[in-house]
Amino acid sequence: MAPSRAERKEQTRTAILEAALRLTVDSSLVAISLRQVAKEVGIVPTAFYRHFDSIESLGVALVDESFIPLRALLRDVWRQAPQLTDLVDGSLSVVAVDVRRHAASYAFIVRERSAGPPRVRAAVRHEIELISQELAADVSGLQGSEALSAKDLELVADLIVSFVVTTVERLTEDPAAEVQILARTRTQILMLLVGALNWRSRD
Q1: Of 13, 132, 160, 189, which sits with the fewest C-beta atoms within 10 Å of its C-beta?
Q2: What secondary structure does DSSP assign to the chain, as a single string?
Q3: Which domain holds residue 129?
Q4: Considering the entire predicted model, what is its pTM?
Q5: CATH number assigned to the domain comprising residue 61
Q6: Are residues 66 and 159 in the same domain?
Q7: 45 and 65 share a domain?
Q8: What does the pLDDT look like over 58-106, one tens digit per residue?
């Protein structure tokens, strides 16, 4: 059975996203053109606009395609973790596996987070903020977090996510050092949590 029009449209959209990732392996999003992407996919430039209104919106879609499934995986870990150590170990495992499976996507995010167009940088920042907010909400239900205010839980979550973001950067730069990188991050986060769990919020 031939694919429907909607299926063909989705296939073309996916092909455009994959082409953009290939073209930015040794470059950046701002350095590629709509025509380059269209040529890579094998479509006319006008067909590009049926899916994205600009290269920048294509970049935002690439960010969404990476972060939305990752956030779902992390939420599953956080909501099933009985202890904070389980949350840390589960989170790092999920991130490491996802970076391995989608290396090109993570390399794109790491690069465009600081060097990408404004909307793409904002999209990455927004997704990281969402992860921090979701983590703070789930940590609040774990044993040992009772003495922390909502504001302090947000600070702890921000710090944990910052460690993980740095870990992703290191994993994309040196995949062979995964074991050492994860061990270092685990120690850093556990040290942070020792201090946080002995903190008494003042508000």
Answers
A1: 13
A2: -PPPHHHHHHHHHHHHHHHHHHHTTTS-GGG--HHHHHHHHT--HHHHTTT-SSHHHHHHHHHHHHHHHHHHHHHHHHHH-SSHHHHHHHHHHHHHHHHHHTHHHHHHHHHHHHHS-HHHHHHHHHHHHHHHHHHHHHHTTSTT-TTS-HHHHHHHHHHHHHHHHHHHHHHHH-GGGHHHHHHHHHHHHHHHHHHHHT-----
A3: 54-198
A4: 0.88
A5: 1.10.357.10
A6: yes
A7: no
A8: 999 999 999 999 999 999 998 888 888 888 999 999 999 999 999 999 9
